[in-house]
Amino acid sequence: KNIREYDLFSLRKRISVVLQDVFLFQGTIMENITLRDESISRESVIDAAKQIGAHAFIESLPNQYDFVVNERGNNLSVGQRQLISFVRAMVFNPDILILDEATSGLDPIMRDEMLDVFLEFVQEENHSILLSSHITSDLEKVADYITFIHNGKLIMTVSKNDLVYNYAVMR
Known about the structure:
It is built from eight helices and seven strands; from the N terminus they run H-E-E-H-H-H-E-H-E-H-E-H-E-E-H. It is of the alpha/beta class. It has a three-stranded parallel sheet with strand order 1-4-5. Strands 2-3 form a two-stranded antiparallel ribbon. The longest helix is centred in the last third of the chain and has 18 residues, at 108-125.
């Protein structure tokens, strides 16, 4: 279906985005995850946090999910802010998850764990992930197809298997 045929509000409700630079506003962890959407239950937030692996760190904070985050999240580490943004994306149960360099600030172990969670999410729910990354191991782990863009222009799209095969032959 042509994307222009969708109602913009309906389309936006089906997409979650996690960026490299996370924006958190002054408010509680819960408010930052739910974006103050009262239809999202505390239980679903906790379930998403457990799935992402953020629950333990949130539970260790004073007031836990009611811990007050400073503007831009400057009272949390970069990794903690990133985990909150992953939980935020997952709690909305999107059809399309856009990860724009979202794992680049994570250590390799945490990055692999996050990619495993997202891969499981896609396989269980038949969702799609659009992953923008300069980290080739991210692409190898989750991509079915890889699209190369240079200076805003589409260069090519290949299946991961074709790309790996062609690379091996060229070597």
